[in-house]
Amino acid sequence: MKVLVAITGASGFPLAVKTLKELGKKEIERHLIVSKNAHKVREQETELTSEQIEQLCEHYYKPDAIHTSICSGSYPINAMIIVPCSMNTLAKIAGGIEDNAITRAAGVNIKQERKVILVPRETPLHLAALKNMVKAKQQGCSIVPPMLAHHTKPKTIENSENFVIGKILELLGIEHTLYQEWNVKK
Ligand SMILES: Cc1cc2nc3c(=O)[nH]c(=O)nc-3n(C[C@H](O)[C@H](O)[C@H](O)COP(=O)(O)O)c2cc1C
C-alpha cells in the first residue's frame, strides 16, 4: 500500500510525525510533502529538523514538485492524508485550486476517486472554513478534525493524539491498538 502524507501549516505537526511513524510500523510505502509554512510550525512545535522529517518516509517531495509522479492520476497512490490541514489548503482543495504539489495531488486523488483524508485544524471555525469542509466532503474527502475525546480517558496529550491517528488508520482499513475500541455489549 502506498500512502501520500502532506503536512501543511496548521498547528499539529506532531500529529503528522506520529502518523508517519504508525504507517511505517505497518510497512506502508510513505510518500511525503511538507508545505513551506508547515516548516514554520515544525520549528514552533517540535525539536525536529527538516532532515529528520525527510527520514520518516520512503519518498520525499518538495512542495513545488508539481512535475513529480504523485501529481499525476496515473501514479497508483492508494490514499492521501493531509495532516494537519490548514484552512488555506482546505480552501484551495474545496475550490479546486491546484497551485502546489499538495493541492495538485489532492485534486488528482479526488478525481481518481481515491481516499483523501483531511485533518483540518483551527478553532473557532469561521463560516468559510465550515463551508469549505462541506465542499471537500461533497467531493469525497473524509474530514477528521483532531477533536478531543474523553471516553478513552486520556491522561497525556499523546493519548489524545493516538485517538486521532487511530481514527485516520481506521478510515484506511488499518488495524491498530492506539486506543481501546468502545466495547459495551449491553
Ligand atoms: C505556529 C503557527 C501555527 C498556525 N496554526 C494554524 C492553524 O492551526 N490552522 C490554520 O489554518 N492555520 C494556521 N497557521 C497559519 C498557516 O500556516 C497559514 O495560513 C499558511 O498560509 C498555511 O499555508 P499552507 O496551507 O501552504 O501550509 C499557523 C501558522 C503558524 C506560524
Short description, anyone?
This protein is an alpha/beta fold. Helix content is 40%, strand content 16%. The protein has helices at residues 13-25, 36-45, 50-54, 87-95, 101-111, 127-138, 157-171, and strands spanning 2-7, 29-34, 59-61, 79-85, 115-120, 142-143.
Bound molecules: flavin mononucleotide
Radius of gyration: 16 Å
Extended strand count = 6
The major pleated sheet works out as: 6 strands, parallel
Query: What structural category do the secondary elements indicate?
Result: alpha/beta
Strand order of the largest sheet: 3-2-1-4-5-6
The CATH homologous superfamily is named: Flavin prenyltransferase-like
Shape from CA axes? globular
Report low-confidence residues grouped into runs of 5 or more: none
How many structural domains? 1
Task: Describe the protein's architecture and organization.
- This protein has 186 residues and is of the alpha/beta class.
- It has a single domain, classed as Flavin prenyltransferase-like (Rossmann fold).
- The protein contains seven helices and six strands.
- It has a six-stranded parallel sheet, with helices on both faces.
- Strand 1, helix 1 and strand 2 form a beta-alpha-beta unit.
- Helix 1 packs across helix 7.
- The chain starts with a strand and ends in a 15-residue tail after the last helix.
- Flavin mononucleotide (FMN) binds next to helix 2 and helix 4.
